[in-house]
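Bench notes, afternoon.
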Amino acid sequence: MPSIKVLAIDGGGIRGIIPAVILAEIQTRLGMDLFKAFDLIAGTSTGGIIALGIGTACKNTGPYSPGELLDLYVQNGPAIFRKSIVTPERQLFLPKYSPDALQSALEQFFGDAQFKSALTPLLISSYDLQGQIPFFFKSHKIASDPTYNWRLAEIARATSAAPTFFPPFHLTRGSEDYALVDGGVFVNNPSMAAYAEARSLYPEALAFTVVSVGTGDRQDQITYASAKDWGLIGWAKEIVPVLMDSVSEAVDFELRALPGCTYYRMQVPHLQNASSDMDDADPENLEELQEVAGEYVASISDQLTRVCAELRGGRGSDMPGIGRVPTLAQS
């Protein structure tokens, strides 16, 4: 029985360089666009941007390659995360960065492409502050409800609106409106959400393969001595990475225990000389992130061989006995 193949990509800001490098290697080994190998692609924050890039017809009539997404980070990262002498004071009262450079990069990268151009079902996470509930962008809902179609630049902006770094994104749907922030506040590793969505999309499937790509283990340690006296100001700097890291580790535990699910987690275990900060876009750090990702890819060559052997046959939903979920780009 063929398995349903799911790709999930973590959040992590500029560290999105790491999954871009890993996915570039997988695509090279497969010899085909990634959307042809997966029945569902999910992403959070920077991973959501990558998912949109590789899973939609946003570049003329096809997707971007992971290598082109790597260029997006290298070329636009310094402008998106540009710091000045007033940055420390600004972040006490305002988001650390203006969204203008991020919005400009997303508009340039995605243009007027819309969510309905999805080439395989996509699940992009965000969180609605007004409703205090998770908000998932689901491309496969557009066929039955056109109001779920938005411009890709809007979705990318919503999923990457990391609290304290960028302001929320205001999105409307008919008479409803949302104040959306980075989905990493509840699913920084979107693998479990992606698995649940795949089970819903393909209820007749008996086996699932989840390929989960991380942005590097931060290896941060907060001691009792340093945290015991923190109040609002002390926690303000640390709460976002603490939340994002903790939910990622929980997903690892949960998916490894599920029967009928083969879970491949690709996570750089140590960033070495690269910064763990999601907004360190100094040229030296951009090079370090690429180097550590390249070394990691070389170190997991055998695992990549196993993963690609499983993916090479293409989407499980294209096999007899499993229904295919249509997307507007395919109909």
